[in-house]
Model the fold of this input.
Amino acid sequence: MNKEAKLAALRHVLARHGLPPHRPAAPLGHAAADGVLGGGLRPGAVHEVFAGDWGAGGFALLMAIRLAAAACGGRGGPLFWVRSDYAALEYGALSPTGLAELGGDPRHLVLLRAKGAQDALAVAADILACPHVGCLLLEMEANPRMLDLTASRRLALAAEESGVSLVLLREGARPEPGAAHTRWRASSLASPPDDDDGNTDWGNPRFAVELVRHRLGGLGKFLMEWDPQAGLFVDPLFVDPLPAQLDLPSADTSLRHPPPLALRARGRGA
Amino acid sequence: MLQHRRILALWLPRLSTDRLIRKAAAPFAAPLIVSVKANNALHVHALEARAERLGLYRGQPLANARAMVQPLCVAPHDGRADAALLDRIADWCDRFTPLVTLDAPDGLYLDITGAAHLFGGEAAMLALVVEKIAAQGFAVRAAIAGAAPAARALARHAHGAIVAPGGEADAVAPLPIAALEPDDKCLRALRHAGLKTVGMVAQRLASELSERLGKAFVRRLQAMLGRMEEPLAPRRPMPDLMAERRFADPIASRDVIAGTLLSLAQSLCGLLEREGRGARLLQAAFFRADGKVERLAVRAGAPLRDPAIMLRLLNQKLDALADPLDPGFGFDLIRLEALLAQDTRPLTVSFDANENARRQVDFLIDRLAARLGGHRVLRFVAQDTHIPEAAAVAIPAQDRDTFDSAAWPVKRRAADPPLRPLRLLERAEEISHVMASVPDGPPGRFRWRQCLHQVARAEGPERIAMEWWRSGVSGSAKTAKALTRDYFRVETREGLRLWLYRDGLYRETGLAARWYLQGIFA
Done:
């Protein structure tokens, strides 16, 4: 190959990296959040969810369902969930019945049980390389050494290349630098109080989430409710005005998040 | 034309002592014998050639042997080590034919039907096998015949015999009656009748023999004479199709191995295509020059006959090995087998984007299964039961035939919130310090994982009775005495939505009912 052709090829590569392919955003359904995000979550990017408490797992999964439904040109693709054996013990195994009740389709879910963080990352790279996957939910416990800036950047590039979105659920982890497009902190939110007639309408998943990082725009704090019938997030009608709830999740979550089993077994529980 | 079966029988008469001598790497100072305890006394189980020349024999009481020869090296019999060694030798023999059958405790059958010409004919092959095994320090006897019992008898009594098809009866005729391996009673009866060779026994009428010696003996005789075929059970499943390559000089470089795998995959795919089949289960076997055999098996979710995909799956498996493939001094044979081949529909290029995407995802699942193992790549199937933890089972995603397309059963009505939790704990965890009203009130507060939770809202009970009609089927004692559960959907003051149950009704358990937390709603 002569010099000019080489240069042209390099320019082509550079141009391609400079201009990311246009992919329509996957709206969450929550008007305020979609507004801040510029229409919705960006497909082919890494979205990181840090756990404020037990609710974070549900939030990340619902987010992944939204992304998977919008993937592959709107046709939707299968959702891959990679988690370690330990995570299933600590945070509970997925119940497909529960997923179906929330409007998801368990038939489109593939669950991968990795032995550890290294396996999980290797498998994630494989999955992100297949453009027909709807979304990948990668569950990472704590701050594994393997998931450094390089690994995170590599995941982001792979997602960008194939257009497969990655939801990275970080349980019991400290925030650290990474290549995520958005970063969220999620915890569960109490249900609304009874209305005047004494009807109780509670039990839909509700979250208090904070968008703590966004590469292309503003941040914000949102209260969201998942509408299982429509399969999207909505603005909650009533908010129980408990002061603790309006105080959105803070950095210190140790009081609300129960200590992991392993720690308690060693007698170092919080 | 029907091909006659050809069986090569191998006998390693001194397997136990040869093993010990090989391990010691130097001859023992005194004649070596291996002892075994039978009828509360030690007996000679195996002995090396030196000891035999001194007049010792198998089955002799050890005390007698010690009295005859001093000094003696005596080692205890180790049946498991012997069996493991025989297994390794059988592994090594896989390079001559994939159909190797163990003839425990000290023999092997190699089904060499249609394989001898690869080694320059039966005589050359027999010589090669014997030479290679003898070079490893084993005493070995071998013979080839059309039936396994005949080959076995000839290996023991006429080393090196090669019997043409149909000639078994004549070949075994001059062998002593010991070749028939009669038990003591039979042997006495035969001696009494003055029968000294197999030929003499064979001349008698079958009815006459079975009257005196039993049907089993006659069956053995008929099989040895080649009049009756007995099936052999090979150690490994017989591959449906295979391709292999031998190397005069062992190969060790990664590139050559990868190139060989590719060309093997191509020839295997050619065979598969000719038969209109695809491989579901692939196995690559690497035969090391020093006798060790490494096997890698890969499953495919759909019948497969694309060499590039085969190679990718194999490479995935190779990469995922905990300790990488060690060529040692090199591999002298690499074989690729389709252990299970299935009919395929002819491959057509699909213009349907959905079909194409599905195929790509299926291939991805195969690759992931090759990396992690099939049991770690899962999909869910709904079960017809009310018991929450049994309502779904996770099965390998590669078993595509078992998935149905029916929608998942949902309990929730349109306006309801979810009635089943998103996550179920692997085992329901007991909660303590529960305050609840009798008989079926929800808990007011409880302690779980060291945190005290105040219940803000609760709904229930939803009563789920255990399936008494299944207790016998599933067979577990746990199901048999399982109690009815009263489930409550609760929300704590912190906003956690949890699924709790009381195990048993108060009238069954009294006030000491136990409470469990089973699931977490989103």
About this structure: The longest strand of chain A covers residues 206-214. The CA atoms of residues 38 and 65 of chain A lie 19 Å apart. DSSP finds nine helices and ten strands in chain A. Residues 242-270 of chain A have pLDDT under 50 and may be disordered.
